[in-house]
């Protein structure tokens, strides 16, 4: 399995709620830069948080990946989601090539859990950072982190 984890691009600092924060123009460019790294990857799914900035990031990524499937919004990719629950959802999907678009602290904790088997070493992920993981199955401690790209 190949798993890509993309943190949303830079977002405005204020909105009526955290979920409504939109990307800045810098964040849009960051998202496009990171998504371009996926241009030749055969994606089975693009899964995104329902928060506006993640939706916008996922839509921009989809726009530069013409053969990618439509973005699917899932409620289990919000900033404070449980990384163990995310792994459970990924297992149920049973897909080979997945792009997740989400937020900190979830993305850093998820990477730590998948690679190290614990939450003690969260991966530092800047806005629009893209992590590439590979493994037989998305289980705690059983995936390898191949690269983290920062825009």
From TrEMBL:
**Under the GO molecular function aspect, what terms does this record hold?**
protein histidine phosphatase activity
Sorted alphabetically, which SUPFAM superfamilies does this protein's record hold? Answer: Phosphoglycerate mutase-like
CDD domains according to UniProt: HP_PGM_like
Q: Name one GO cellular component term.
A: cytoplasm
Pfam families recorded: His_Phos_1
- NCBIfam families to which the protein is assigned, alphabetical: sixA (TIGR00249)
- This one is known as Phosphohistidine phosphatase
Q: Specify the species.
A: Pseudomonas rhizosphaerae
Task: State the organism's lineage.
Answer: Bacteria, Pseudomonadati, Pseudomonadota, Gammaproteobacteria, Pseudomonadales
């Amino acid at each position: 399995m190949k798993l890509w984890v993309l943190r949303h691009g830079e977002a405005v600092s204020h909105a009526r709620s955290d979920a409504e924060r939109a990307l800045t123009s810098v964040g849009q460019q960051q998202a496009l830069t990171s998504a371009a790294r996926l241009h030749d990857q055969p994606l089975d799914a693009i899964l995104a948080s329902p928060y506006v900035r993640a939706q916008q990031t996922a839509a921009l990524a989809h726009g530069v990946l013409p053969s990618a499937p439509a973005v699917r919004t899932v409620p289990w990719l919000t900033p404070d989601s449980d990384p163990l629950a995310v792994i459970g959802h990924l297992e149920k999907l049973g897909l080979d090539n997945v792009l997740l678009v989400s937020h900190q602290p979830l993305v850093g904790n998820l990477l730590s859990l998948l690679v190290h088997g614990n939450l003690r070493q969260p991966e530092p992920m800047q806005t629009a950072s893209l992590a590439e993981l590979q493994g037989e199955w998305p289980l705690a401690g059983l995936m390898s982190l191949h690269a983290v790209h920062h825009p």
